[in-house]
Amino acid sequence: MNKEIAPSTIEEIDFLTSPAFIEEFPNLMKSIQEPRFSINDLNIAPRDATYWDKQGALPKIKGVGLRRKYDLLQSVWIKLIQQMRSLGISHETIKNLKEKILEPKLNLNQIDPAIVNKLLEELQMKYGSIVTEQELITSFKETLPSAFESAVISTIVFRKSHNCLVNKDGDYFLYNTSNQKELITSNEVFFEFISKPYFSISFADAYQSLVREWSPKSFFTDSSLLSETELEILNNIRRDDINSLTIRYKEGEPDLIEIEEQKQISMDQRFLDVIAKNSFQKITISTRNGKIVNYVNKIQQKLKKSTK
After folding, report:
1. I want to staple 27 with a disulfide (CB 3.0 to 4.6 A). Which of 130, 181, 224, 301 is the partner?
2. What is the C-alpha separation between 189 and 213, in angstroms, rounded?
3. What residue ranges do the domains of the chain occupy?
């Protein structure tokens, strides 16, 4: 018995099909589709990877060559393997779960009809009136992401928390944790599943693990694990010439950064040249013996439109 709750709403579909998505996450789909990450990038010991592979737990290697390379979806799966092994879940259960959740497509019958209609409209606009509704549905099924892919994208882009309940046979129930109380009271399949022994694994924890481990690496900026807005904030946080950083929100989204800089001014540096390099809101000057020795400059930076 497997059950998947489609993680996307119409509003989320609108964002994912808009230019704003590409602007905020320019390389996310590339990371999802291309094998870019090695076992070493995933902080997995080669011995463990070899053993997991023999047990059938690792996903299929894409591309050619002797070195294992995985795409972003597979990388999330490998982090979920780490979670499951830490919980004592057997390799046989992990293998069964992989075969059931990693590859299959979403069942159209499990998706909100309004979302299906919305996506069909997108296909109609793309292909025009030269195709029939049945051809559109066929194309829709072929391009529809798996529940696993949908959960990963939703976790990264919309910061939704998805959990997967797994029993010893590798059967699973994938759901958005914000709906857990509602599921307990109104979903018989969910209630039946949790009435028997199960484990719970977290997509959010797997994603956070990748962010922690990859943030110091050179490819992190290019992976789109964080949005362009979040990367801008992170890069400012890492600067060593900042006293404080304030993030101001508008309608629930980061809208403005206030940066308070502190810099030393050398004897041969003209003060007017310094302040001319940056716009500023407030500047504080420190002097010693009548000479400028440092200044604090509070700068405001407007953020690009962030995710919903």
Report:
1. 224
2. 36
3. 3-106+145-214, 227-302
